[in-house]
TrEMBL record:
Species annotation: Sphaerisporangium corydalis
Gene3D superfamilies tied to this protein: 2.30.30.30, Nucleic acid-binding proteins (2.40.50.140)
SMART domains given in the database record: EFP (SM01185), Elong-fact-P_C (SM00841)
Keywords: Cytoplasm, Elongation factor, Protein biosynthesis
Cell compartments where the protein resides: Cytoplasm
Protein name: Elongation factor P
Length: 186
């Protein structure tokens, strides 16, 4: 347990509903009249929903213990992704639902941050950009320039991204893992 005076950005709170919320922003307010309070912006750890919540100053809030570890993606086991802790070499099975869209950018031996709370995996966080090879795309035409349009390309993971017309099959490109956009050649 902590008080609202101990709040800081990145702290994970367990509120009345049992859901986990990350403190995105907070501000202590001391009006001229009445008691002090803390205005916060909280983000739901699982859904990503952001809400504003006000606490009275000095109120106790429950802090959740979220363990973030760097792990290496090893292989698929049925519908689970198997990650290996890079320090202890323990294996951890993560369901496809928890991995979510990150599955589009995961190759074997990719490093990712895995957040765990009370033995439950909350989410997988990939680096901002990854390098992947294009497995299939339509051939470019003579005169295609970087200022032209885009075309669909399938990556080695099976994900599809829009790339400039001059990109060909077999090239390595950088992809933004948050938006799925093409960033450039690797």
């Amino acid at each position: 347990m902590a008080t609202t005076n101990d709040l800081k950005n990145g702290l994970v709170l367990k509120l009345d509903t049992g859901e986990l919320w990350t403190v995105v922003d907070f501000q202590h307010v001391k009006p001229g009249k009445g008691g002090a309070f803390v205005r916060t912006k909280l983000k739901n750890v699982l859904s990503g929903k952001v809400v504003d919540k006000t606490f009275n100053a000095g109120v106790k809030v429950e802090v959740a213990n979220v363990d973030k570890r760097e792990m290496q993606y090893s292989y698929m086991d049925g519908d689970d992704f198997v990650f290996m802790d890079t320090e202890t070499y323990d294996m951890l099975n993560v369901p496809r639902v928890t991995v979510g869209d990150a599955a589009n950018y995961l190759l074997e031996n990719t490093l990712a941050t895995v957040a765990v709370n009370e033995g439950n995996v909350l989410y997988i966080e990939l680096p901002a950009a990854v390098e992947l090879t294009i497995s299939q795309t339509e051939p470019g035409l003579q005169g295609d320039r970087s200022t032209g349009g885009t075309k669909p390309a399938t990556l080695e993971t099976g994900a599809e991204v829009k790339v400039p017309l001059f990109i060909t099959t077999g090239e390595k490109i950088k992809v933004d893992t948050r938006t799925g956009e093409y960033l450039g050649r690797a």
